[in-house]
């Protein structure tokens, strides 16, 4: 049966799925980090995925960090930011050091970024080599701190499809380079997320879970729209009400290792949707594991 322990979504046969809320989901809401921690704890989440700008804005208030979050029986699953890979190397490394220090303060060893600002087909061999070189520099530094760089599977980046993602991992060839597997964006690329997950499994350290009503609405997640307070939210739907079959996907996740995942919701009614989604995930995993 499903574990009823607070902050553990499911624990069966050695399987622990740890779910986080994303503070980015509340980017247009007037909620404090205290209120978000209370909400996450009350709904049975294991932690929070902290948006980089939120970590930076809290940096001067020394009250907040890993110890404070642990007082809610929560942890920071990941620090999600956008490292300036196209900036001068000194600037890029200074930002890397800044984020690394914030990640340490918040008790996470995972820093998320995107790779490049254009799709893999639009990226020249020279540009790709330069990005790979920069990833190596960042990974070398993070490795010295016991941390990992997670590249997110995302459109208009070098990880916009499965072959390019695998190529990037092989070219960089660094033990500190990992993958944040965004299920929707992998599906958007045209590959079955289950097939992609099985191929990338050795590199995956985190999952982003979200859904869409149909492919015709995928533009809703374009950065210029999704980050805008006035952007449309049409087509965004709760996890089990969209085009991606999450019941099937969750049934295929490796049950022999700990899984970290975040519910990445960008629409309205954030608290009610996240509450429904975590309850539905519990039910789906219970059906899988009975």
TrEMBL record:
UniProt superkingdom: Bacteria
InterPro entries hit by this protein: IolE/XylAMocC-like, Xyl_isomerase-like_sf, Xyl_isomerase-like_TIM-brl
Entries under Pfam families matching the protein: AP_endonuc_2 (PF01261)
Residues in coiled coil: none
Domain Xylose isomerase-like TIM barrel: 39-284
PANTHER family (alphabetical): HYDROXYPYRUVATE ISOMERASE, XYLOSE ISOMERASE-LIKE TIM BARREL DOMAIN-CONTAINING PROTEIN
Name assigned to this protein: 3-dehydroshikimate dehydratase
Species this protein is from: Lysinibacillus fusiformis
